[in-house]
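Q: C-alpha coordinates for this one, please.
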Amino acid sequence: MYGNGDALAAFEATVAAELGKAAAVFMPSGTMAQQIALRVWAERTGRRAVAFHPTCHLEIHEAKGYAFLHGLRALTCGAPGSLMTLADFEAVHDPLAALLIELPQREIGGRLPAWDELEALCAAARARGAKLHLDGARLWEAAPHYERTHAEIAALFDSVYVSFYKGLGAIAGAMLAGDAETIAQARVWQHRHGGRLVALYPLWLSAQLGFERNLAKMGAYRQRAVEIAARLANIDGLEIVPEPPQTNMFHVFLRGERAELERRAHEFARATGTFVFARLAPTVQPQVQKWEFVVGDATLSLSVDDVVAPVRALVA
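A: Here is the predicted structure, written as C-alpha coordinates:
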Protein backbone atom coordinates (compact mmCIF):
# COMPACT_ATOMS: atom_id res chain seq x y z
CA MET A 1 0.00 0.00 0.00
CA TYR A 2 1.08 3.58 -0.78
CA GLY A 3 4.09 2.36 -2.74
CA ASN A 4 5.47 0.30 0.14
CA GLY A 5 6.06 -3.45 0.40
CA ASP A 6 8.77 -5.99 -0.22
CA ALA A 7 7.48 -7.07 -3.62
CA LEU A 8 7.55 -3.57 -5.10
CA ALA A 9 10.89 -2.85 -3.41
CA ALA A 10 12.33 -5.95 -5.09
CA PHE A 11 11.11 -4.78 -8.51
CA GLU A 12 12.58 -1.32 -7.93
CA ALA A 13 15.91 -2.92 -7.02
CA THR A 14 15.79 -5.08 -10.16
CA VAL A 15 15.26 -2.09 -12.44
CA ALA A 16 17.89 -0.04 -10.61
CA ALA A 17 20.38 -2.86 -11.18
CA GLU A 18 19.42 -3.10 -14.86
CA LEU A 19 20.21 0.61 -15.17
CA GLY A 20 23.37 0.40 -13.08
CA LYS A 21 22.00 2.77 -10.44
CA ALA A 22 21.94 2.50 -6.67
CA ALA A 23 18.20 2.99 -6.23
CA ALA A 24 14.92 3.50 -8.05
CA VAL A 25 11.36 4.51 -7.24
CA PHE A 26 8.19 3.47 -9.09
CA MET A 27 5.82 6.31 -10.02
CA PRO A 28 2.46 6.42 -11.80
CA SER A 29 3.70 8.55 -14.70
CA GLY A 30 6.78 9.83 -16.47
CA THR A 31 5.45 13.37 -16.22
CA MET A 32 5.69 13.11 -12.45
CA ALA A 33 9.07 11.37 -12.47
CA GLN A 34 10.81 13.85 -14.76
CA GLN A 35 9.54 17.02 -13.12
CA ILE A 36 10.62 15.62 -9.78
CA ALA A 37 14.09 14.75 -11.09
CA LEU A 38 14.64 18.27 -12.37
CA ARG A 39 13.33 19.78 -9.12
CA VAL A 40 15.78 17.67 -7.11
CA TRP A 41 18.69 18.77 -9.30
CA ALA A 42 17.62 22.40 -9.05
CA GLU A 43 17.66 22.22 -5.25
CA ARG A 44 20.95 20.32 -5.23
CA THR A 45 22.74 22.82 -7.50
CA GLY A 46 21.00 26.00 -6.36
CA ARG A 47 20.12 26.82 -9.98
CA ARG A 48 16.67 27.19 -11.57
CA ALA A 49 17.48 26.86 -15.28
CA VAL A 50 17.27 23.55 -17.17
CA ALA A 51 18.06 22.83 -20.80
CA PHE A 52 16.41 20.46 -23.24
CA HIS A 53 15.42 20.02 -26.90
CA PRO A 54 12.48 22.12 -28.22
CA THR A 55 10.38 18.96 -28.68
CA CYS A 56 10.98 17.73 -25.12
CA HIS A 57 7.88 16.15 -23.55
CA LEU A 58 8.08 18.62 -20.64
CA GLU A 59 7.87 21.52 -23.06
CA ILE A 60 5.09 20.45 -25.42
CA HIS A 61 2.94 17.88 -23.58
CA GLU A 62 2.85 18.90 -19.90
CA ALA A 63 1.38 22.43 -19.88
CA LYS A 64 4.77 23.69 -18.62
CA GLY A 65 4.37 21.97 -15.28
CA TYR A 66 8.11 22.39 -14.65
CA ALA A 67 7.55 26.15 -14.49
CA PHE A 68 4.16 26.37 -12.75
CA LEU A 69 4.77 23.64 -10.16
CA HIS A 70 8.52 23.93 -9.61
CA GLY A 71 9.52 27.44 -10.67
CA LEU A 72 12.06 26.16 -13.19
CA ARG A 73 13.15 28.10 -16.24
CA ALA A 74 13.68 26.20 -19.48
CA LEU A 75 16.24 26.93 -22.17
CA THR A 76 15.74 25.01 -25.41
CA CYS A 77 18.74 23.76 -27.38
CA GLY A 78 18.75 23.17 -31.12
CA ALA A 79 16.21 23.12 -33.94
CA PRO A 80 12.86 21.34 -33.56
CA GLY A 81 13.47 19.02 -36.50
CA SER A 82 17.04 17.99 -35.69
CA LEU A 83 18.99 16.30 -32.93
CA MET A 84 20.63 18.53 -30.34
CA THR A 85 24.31 19.08 -31.09
CA LEU A 86 27.27 20.09 -28.98
CA ALA A 87 27.25 23.47 -30.71
CA ASP A 88 23.58 23.92 -29.79
CA PHE A 89 24.37 23.27 -26.15
CA GLU A 90 27.41 25.55 -26.14
CA ALA A 91 25.19 28.39 -27.42
CA VAL A 92 23.38 28.32 -24.04
CA HIS A 93 25.42 30.32 -21.55
CA ASP A 94 23.22 30.38 -18.44
CA PRO A 95 24.25 28.33 -15.39
CA LEU A 96 22.20 25.13 -15.57
CA ALA A 97 20.80 22.83 -12.92
CA ALA A 98 20.47 20.04 -15.46
CA LEU A 99 20.58 19.06 -19.10
CA LEU A 100 17.79 16.69 -20.15
CA ILE A 101 18.46 14.39 -23.10
CA GLU A 102 15.80 12.16 -24.64
CA LEU A 103 16.88 8.81 -26.12
CA PRO A 104 15.44 8.27 -28.67
CA GLN A 105 13.70 11.51 -29.64
CA ARG A 106 10.13 10.53 -30.30
CA GLU A 107 8.91 13.73 -31.97
CA ILE A 108 11.54 13.55 -34.74
CA GLY A 109 11.07 9.91 -35.64
CA GLY A 110 12.86 8.12 -32.83
CA ARG A 111 16.29 9.37 -33.84
CA LEU A 112 19.42 8.80 -31.77
CA PRO A 113 22.71 10.71 -31.70
CA ALA A 114 25.96 8.92 -32.48
CA TRP A 115 27.54 7.53 -29.33
CA ASP A 116 30.62 9.77 -29.46
CA GLU A 117 28.41 12.84 -29.96
CA LEU A 118 26.30 11.83 -26.96
CA GLU A 119 29.41 11.39 -24.82
CA ALA A 120 30.72 14.80 -25.88
CA LEU A 121 27.42 16.49 -25.05
CA CYS A 122 27.28 14.91 -21.60
CA ALA A 123 30.90 15.81 -20.89
CA ALA A 124 30.27 19.43 -21.84
CA ALA A 125 27.32 19.62 -19.45
CA ARG A 126 29.31 18.11 -16.59
CA ALA A 127 32.15 20.55 -17.20
CA ARG A 128 29.69 23.37 -16.51
CA GLY A 129 28.42 21.82 -13.29
CA ALA A 130 25.08 20.68 -14.74
CA LYS A 131 23.50 17.38 -13.81
CA LEU A 132 22.49 14.95 -16.57
CA HIS A 133 18.97 13.55 -16.73
CA LEU A 134 17.88 10.92 -19.26
CA ASP A 135 14.36 10.92 -20.62
CA GLY A 136 14.46 7.19 -21.28
CA ALA A 137 10.78 6.74 -22.04
CA ARG A 138 11.99 4.54 -24.89
CA LEU A 139 15.42 3.63 -23.57
CA TRP A 140 14.60 -0.07 -23.81
CA GLU A 141 13.98 0.42 -27.53
CA ALA A 142 17.20 2.45 -28.02
CA ALA A 143 19.67 -0.11 -26.64
CA PRO A 144 19.78 -2.39 -29.73
CA HIS A 145 20.98 0.52 -31.89
CA TYR A 146 23.87 1.35 -29.58
CA GLU A 147 24.69 -2.32 -28.95
CA ARG A 148 25.30 -1.38 -25.33
CA THR A 149 23.63 -2.46 -22.12
CA HIS A 150 21.06 -0.26 -20.45
CA ALA A 151 23.55 0.31 -17.63
CA GLU A 152 26.24 1.46 -20.06
CA ILE A 153 23.89 4.03 -21.55
CA ALA A 154 22.54 5.13 -18.17
CA ALA A 155 26.09 5.57 -16.83
CA LEU A 156 26.31 8.84 -18.75
CA PHE A 157 23.48 10.28 -16.64
CA ASP A 158 22.87 11.19 -12.99
CA SER A 159 19.18 10.28 -13.14
CA VAL A 160 17.20 8.11 -15.53
CA TYR A 161 13.48 7.84 -16.19
CA VAL A 162 12.11 4.76 -17.95
CA SER A 163 8.57 3.93 -19.02
CA PHE A 164 6.80 0.60 -18.80
CA TYR A 165 3.66 1.14 -20.88
CA LYS A 166 5.28 1.98 -24.22
CA GLY A 167 7.55 -0.77 -25.50
CA LEU A 168 6.87 -3.10 -22.57
CA GLY A 169 3.08 -2.94 -22.74
CA ALA A 170 2.18 -2.20 -19.10
CA ILE A 171 -1.03 -0.47 -18.04
CA ALA A 172 0.98 2.61 -17.03
CA GLY A 173 3.90 3.47 -14.79
CA ALA A 174 7.46 4.73 -14.72
CA MET A 175 10.65 4.35 -12.74
CA LEU A 176 13.12 7.05 -11.72
CA ALA A 177 16.62 5.77 -10.94
CA GLY A 178 19.72 7.41 -9.53
CA ASP A 179 21.87 7.56 -6.42
CA ALA A 180 20.31 6.72 -3.07
CA GLU A 181 20.10 10.32 -1.83
CA THR A 182 18.41 11.53 -5.02
CA ILE A 183 15.82 8.76 -4.95
CA ALA A 184 15.10 9.39 -1.26
CA GLN A 185 14.36 13.04 -2.12
CA ALA A 186 12.29 11.92 -5.11
CA ARG A 187 10.08 9.81 -2.83
CA VAL A 188 9.25 12.92 -0.79
CA TRP A 189 8.34 14.81 -3.95
CA GLN A 190 6.27 11.86 -5.15
CA HIS A 191 4.22 12.18 -1.97
CA ARG A 192 3.82 15.92 -2.57
CA HIS A 193 2.66 15.23 -6.13
CA GLY A 194 -0.01 12.79 -4.94
CA GLY A 195 1.85 9.90 -6.53
CA ARG A 196 1.76 7.50 -3.57
CA LEU A 197 -1.56 5.92 -4.50
CA VAL A 198 -3.13 3.56 -2.00
CA ALA A 199 -3.13 0.82 -4.66
CA LEU A 200 -0.21 1.08 -7.06
CA TYR A 201 -0.07 -2.68 -7.54
CA PRO A 202 -2.15 -2.88 -10.76
CA LEU A 203 0.41 -0.58 -12.37
CA TRP A 204 3.63 -2.05 -11.05
CA LEU A 205 2.54 -5.67 -11.43
CA SER A 206 1.77 -5.08 -15.11
CA ALA A 207 5.07 -3.17 -15.40
CA GLN A 208 6.99 -6.09 -13.92
CA LEU A 209 5.20 -8.53 -16.21
CA GLY A 210 6.07 -6.45 -19.28
CA PHE A 211 9.64 -6.04 -18.08
CA GLU A 212 10.06 -9.79 -17.68
CA ARG A 213 8.26 -10.80 -20.88
CA ASN A 214 9.10 -8.13 -23.44
CA LEU A 215 12.47 -6.56 -22.64
CA ALA A 216 14.32 -9.18 -24.68
CA LYS A 217 12.15 -8.51 -27.75
CA MET A 218 13.45 -5.02 -28.50
CA GLY A 219 15.99 -6.21 -31.04
CA ALA A 220 13.30 -8.14 -32.94
CA TYR A 221 11.00 -5.10 -32.86
CA ARG A 222 13.73 -2.92 -34.34
CA GLN A 223 14.60 -5.42 -37.06
CA ARG A 224 10.97 -5.68 -38.15
CA ALA A 225 10.71 -1.87 -38.21
CA VAL A 226 13.73 -1.73 -40.54
CA GLU A 227 12.17 -4.34 -42.85
CA ILE A 228 8.79 -2.60 -43.01
CA ALA A 229 10.29 0.86 -43.47
CA ALA A 230 12.39 -0.33 -46.41
CA ARG A 231 9.26 -1.56 -48.17
CA LEU A 232 7.19 1.52 -47.35
CA ALA A 233 9.95 3.78 -48.67
CA ASN A 234 9.37 2.28 -52.13
CA ILE A 235 5.75 3.48 -52.24
CA ASP A 236 5.38 6.65 -54.28
CA GLY A 237 4.16 9.53 -52.14
CA LEU A 238 5.59 8.29 -48.83
CA GLU A 239 8.75 9.40 -47.02
CA ILE A 240 10.23 7.52 -44.06
CA VAL A 241 12.09 9.33 -41.26
CA PRO A 242 14.64 8.21 -40.26
CA GLU A 243 15.60 5.82 -43.01
CA PRO A 244 16.51 3.26 -41.92
CA PRO A 245 14.83 3.39 -38.49
CA GLN A 246 17.16 3.39 -35.49
CA THR A 247 14.59 1.94 -33.10
CA ASN A 248 11.25 0.14 -33.38
CA MET A 249 9.52 3.37 -34.43
CA PHE A 250 9.66 5.75 -37.36
CA HIS A 251 7.54 8.48 -38.94
CA VAL A 252 5.72 8.22 -42.26
CA PHE A 253 5.17 11.45 -44.18
CA LEU A 254 2.63 11.92 -46.96
CA ARG A 255 1.32 14.86 -48.92
CA GLY A 256 -2.28 16.09 -48.84
CA GLU A 257 -4.93 17.84 -46.78
CA ARG A 258 -5.10 16.34 -43.31
CA ALA A 259 -8.90 16.14 -43.09
CA GLU A 260 -9.22 14.61 -46.56
CA LEU A 261 -6.51 12.02 -45.91
CA GLU A 262 -8.12 11.00 -42.63
CA ARG A 263 -11.54 10.76 -44.32
CA ARG A 264 -10.11 8.42 -46.96
CA ALA A 265 -8.36 6.32 -44.32
CA HIS A 266 -11.62 5.93 -42.39
CA GLU A 267 -13.51 4.95 -45.56
CA PHE A 268 -10.77 2.42 -46.31
CA ALA A 269 -11.10 1.04 -42.77
CA ARG A 270 -14.88 0.63 -43.12
CA ALA A 271 -14.47 -1.10 -46.48
CA THR A 272 -11.58 -3.41 -45.57
CA GLY A 273 -11.59 -3.72 -41.78
CA THR A 274 -8.04 -2.34 -41.61
CA PHE A 275 -6.97 0.99 -40.15
CA VAL A 276 -3.78 2.19 -41.85
CA PHE A 277 -3.92 5.21 -39.55
CA ALA A 278 -6.70 6.67 -37.45
CA ARG A 279 -5.40 10.22 -37.46
CA LEU A 280 -2.49 12.24 -38.75
CA ALA A 281 -0.26 14.86 -37.14
CA PRO A 282 0.48 18.17 -38.86
CA THR A 283 4.00 19.20 -39.83
CA VAL A 284 5.62 22.59 -40.47
CA GLN A 285 4.50 22.21 -44.11
CA PRO A 286 0.69 22.55 -44.34
CA GLN A 287 0.41 20.05 -47.21
CA VAL A 288 2.56 17.39 -45.53
CA GLN A 289 1.18 15.18 -42.75
CA LYS A 290 2.71 12.35 -40.73
CA TRP A 291 1.87 9.34 -38.65
CA GLU A 292 3.96 7.39 -36.21
CA PHE A 293 4.63 3.72 -36.91
CA VAL A 294 5.56 1.62 -33.88
CA VAL A 295 6.44 -2.07 -34.02
CA GLY A 296 5.42 -4.31 -31.12
CA ASP A 297 3.99 -7.78 -30.59
CA ALA A 298 0.96 -7.11 -32.81
CA THR A 299 3.19 -6.20 -35.74
CA LEU A 300 5.44 -9.20 -35.22
CA SER A 301 2.38 -11.42 -35.56
CA LEU A 302 1.93 -10.17 -39.15
CA SER A 303 4.12 -10.65 -42.18
CA VAL A 304 5.77 -7.63 -43.78
CA ASP A 305 3.40 -8.09 -46.75
CA ASP A 306 0.41 -8.02 -44.39
CA VAL A 307 1.55 -4.60 -43.18
CA VAL A 308 2.67 -3.05 -46.46
CA ALA A 309 -0.23 -4.15 -48.67
CA PRO A 310 -3.00 -2.05 -47.05
CA VAL A 311 -0.71 0.98 -46.88
CA ARG A 312 0.04 0.64 -50.59
CA ALA A 313 -3.65 0.19 -51.40
CA LEU A 314 -4.69 3.26 -49.42
CA VAL A 315 -1.98 5.50 -50.84
CA ALA A 316 -2.84 4.35 -54.36
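A few notes: The first helix runs from residue 6 to 18. Residues 6-213 form a domain with the Aspartate Aminotransferase; domain 2 fold (CATH 3.40.640.10).
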